[in-house]
Amino acid sequence: MAAGHAHPLYRAGDSVVHRLPAHVKIVVAFVFVLAVVATPREAFAVFGLQFLLLVGVWVAARIPPGWLATRALIEAPFVVLAVLLPFFATGPRVEWWGMSLSVDGLLAGWNILIKGTLGVLVSVTLAATTPLRDLVSGLSRLRVPSMVCVIATLMLRYLEVIAAEARRMRLARVSRGHDPRFAWQLGATVRSVGALFLRSYERGERVHLAMLSRGYTGAMPAFTTASASTATWSVALVPAVAAALLAVSGYWVW
Amino acid sequence: MTASLEVSGLAFAYPDGHQALFGVDLRIERGERVALLGPNGAGKTTLVLHLNGVHRAGAGTVRVGGLEVTREHVQEIRRRVGIVFQDPDDQLFMPTVADDVAFGPANFGVTEPELSLRVKEALDAVGVAELADRSPMHLSGGQRRRAALATVLACDPEILVLDEPSTHLDPVARRELADVLLGLDRTMLMVTHDLPYALQLCPRSVVIDGGVVVADAATRDLLADADFLAAHRLELPFGFALD
């Protein structure tokens, strides 16, 4: 599929993973994340093995680790909490490099950090191998209510249009000497957010009108999406099932 | 033969009481290209939205290919009347051009394999076949306009209605669009302020002002009548003159 212009998380390719139908990948990613979340936090080795499963998927999808790492940085703000927990949690404490850390806090922080990281990596992997439109059609194939899919489709499309509009409005303000570095100049920015909302609302009405004019009756037409054979499912589910088995083993072995 | 479009005695007032149309009569034969001219606020857009049943006539009737615009027929009417809106960003809402072109015919019950064929034909007709898998966001103004035209052509309409097709187009894109439109061989109603464009594309023009048709004549004759144009807030751009 030609995807010359896609979202920044998508990495065009023709690998096995790219070619999988989107709904299969969504299910696999979902099960994988559930397995990660269900893994007991003390089962350190299980997380390592789950990570190796992901590495396997990246190799199959030919995604370089650096590319993934930069996009996984979105997690950073959430990590702050995980880092703070060992300092502020209560319970038994351990000395480490002269700092007194809570054992419970350390585990809780680790729990957030590792599950969050694996979860983000799974999501980034899904996004890297699946164009947005396929994600939406995959969701609709998984019987997500069609209204939700329509909203997702429209949001994906108009986010860029609205962002471009916001840029033009900012440029027009700046061109007239607006320099929103000072608090008292915020007013104009706030008002233009209001104007942008109204414009977007009006655009929404026009888009709806244009959709009605082409026969839209409230339900999106069902575009046929590729179905997946049992064989495809069974191969694709391998990492997800393996992750789930590892999670279960975490309760017994570790 | 039945006319493509037959509007008779059409009157309409908005819910706030503002009356926009006071008895409009208009007949367009199959294959005609007609320009709909008039100053801002004359009622052009209101008239256009009656053609596919977005507005319902307060009085009078609209028929498209012999079929009256009523609540029961609204879906078939919308297939027959293909409106290309002024801002292609309002029209192109799907992630790719091909999806957007498929949207209309799919709504009207066209299924695969005919659907793909329709999409291909429509994109070919406007010369943007290579853009099928692109996002509308990344097209030039002219490409976007032609893609918007394709979304309507794919529905195989009885009459094409174009709202200000030449706005925001550079001169080359404007001319290329004209070439595409002239090559389509379809019944067309073109709402425009671009009088030279009307002259180039439409042998016949209808002028609306104050909610009524004030003139219906050959475009060339209309545009040559400077007094008439001035009376209805119309004028040829600087440097243009017809005699």
UniProtKB/TrEMBL annotation, chain A:
Keywords: Cell membrane, Membrane, Transmembrane, Transmembrane helix
Major location (coarse): membrane
Localisation per UniProt entry: Cell membrane
Family matches, as InterPro entries: ABC/ECF_trnsptr_transmembrane, ECF_CbiQ, ECF_transporter_component
Membrane topology qualifier: Multi-pass membrane protein
Segments crossing the lipid bilayer: 20-38, 44-61, 73-92, 112-132, 144-162, 222-253
Presence of keyword tRNA processing: no
Domain of life of the native organism: Bacteria
Protein name, as recorded: Cobalt ECF transporter T component CbiQ
Lineage: Bacteria, Bacillati, Actinomycetota, Actinomycetes, Pseudonocardiales
From TrEMBL, chain B:
Superkingdom of source: Bacteria
GO molecular-function terms, A-Z: ATP binding
CDD domains from the UniProt entry: ABC_cobalt_CbiO_domain1
Gene3D superfamilies noted in UniProt: P-loop containing nucleotide triphosphate hydrolases
UniProt source species: Actinomycetospora flava
PANTHER family, per database record: ENERGY-COUPLING FACTOR TRANSPORTER ATP-BINDING PROTEIN ECFA1, HEAVY METAL TRANSPORTER
Domain ABC transporter: 5-235
Keywords: ATP-binding, Nucleotide-binding, Transport
Pfam family, one: ABC_tran
Keyword Disulfide bond part of the UniProt annotation: no
Classification lineage: Bacteria, Bacillati, Actinomycetota, Actinomycetes, Pseudonocardiales
Name of the protein: ABC transporter ATP-binding protein
Family to which the UniProt record says this protein belongs: Belongs to the ABC transporter superfamily.
